[in-house]
Amino acid sequence: xxxxDIPEDARRxxxxxxxxxxxxxxxxxxxxxSLVSELDIPRSEQQELLRxxxxxxxxxxxxxxxxxxxxxxxSPEEAVADVSALIDEGDLDERVAVSAVDILxxxxxxxxxxTLEKAKKAATxxxxxxRATFAEALVVHRHELDRDVELPAVERQPEPEAAASQxxxxxxxxxxxxxxxxxxxxxxxxxxxxxxxDVYELQCGPRLMAIVIQRALVDGEGAGQPxxxxxxxxxxxxxxxxxGDFFAALxxxxxxxxxxxxxxxxTRLTGEPVFAGTGSAGPGxxxxxxxxxxxxxxxxxxxxxxxxxxxxEITGVSDTRSVPGLGPQKVDIx
Amino acid sequence: xARISINVIRVGSELFTSSDELEIxxxxxxxxxxxxxxxxxxxxxxxxxxxxxxxxxRDILDTTGEAETxxxxxxxxNHNVDVFFVKTFVGSVAGxxxxxxxxxKNAKGMDGxxxxxxxxLTGHILxxxxxxxxxxxxxxxxxxxxxxxxxxxGGRLDSGQGATMRSHCFIEx
Lengths: 334, 173
Known about the structure:
A: alpha+beta, Leucine-rich Repeat Variant, globular, B: alpha/beta, 5-stranded mixed β-sheet, two-stranded parallel sheet, 28% helix
């Protein structure tokens, strides 16, 4: 990882304003956006700077998308209101709309479902339709709404081959890493009440994962029947090797399956399925068998998620290799 | 002399202008010159594109996680380091790579480097991230070194770093 050292004289509102318009060579918009929250101006002016960039249809879509993301970090509620209004007004560049629906999925409430439906119907690209559909699923699961949603289709991988697989088992995280994992998850899901979550860890090959899970689901106290309504029992964060910080990487979507069983699908934050399975669950107890989705970059794995005796235990094996990535197109450039 | 090769992969290729192409070309030249100082030749530079229609929205990277996903989702099946060039990586982070990256590019975890195109800095970012991939860690106490944790920096490599890079499994004799 490498950061850009931003000159001190660029940290001024007038410079950042020009940079957001793409008029400052030494300060690309991606850096200018990150500077807004550090400017010595009132929060309302910081928001106004970003809102101006987001709403300006003449600006490069990338700048508008970045402004939307930065506005969410600064004030999720206002970002949700702003991007909803843009979608409702129509005529939104579809690439900006993709960022907008992503924000609504992670930070929006039930009131945004109508806006997401509108974005889905108006979509002319498959990318926007997929993201809006997934954003609807996120809102429904985050707010535990009794409503059917379309989840990403999952094509399963075969079980990992025993000879090439690595075993893994979860453990409860220590306080320091647990708090860092919660902070990382909160960055992407701003209204998640992390105080009501516990953190377990899983070391699988080079990757340290943190499972930020609803405490009530594990200890059974105050929880209803899991799966009765769509919910997000856990978010999985990955640890960045260099910085030691965690970032939200997978979201677990729990729902009903057949014969009183529950279904669990883990997806990337952009909706691609990664693991899926079914099992049984009740207050303070659960057993769900998961296998990998056939998604590029995902290794074959099988795991059992158990909740018993007020503890979460995840055991399983994972292949050391992943489904091969997609191939870019070769070009001749001299 | 030891040799290394890279794949230059443009994510959202339609967005790359002629000045971006010049910036990438200059970045490759900077990397070639810097690595040559420690006995490492940049052998082949192969060019690849991921058009917007296939990029799945990864032409703009909002998070570190999305950068990692990009390298998981795409792979060039050869013995070069995959370097994904993006026009926008939100925030002050301008590049990302695993330290001592894998030579099996279908191995679990991040298996490529990501570089944001920033005028005048892309060469430092490229050489720094490929340096990570070849086994180098940060030199946070030496701002003259290429592996200082921010750019711009002095862009130098020392013989110990050269030896580390030359021992990576992607190096051709």
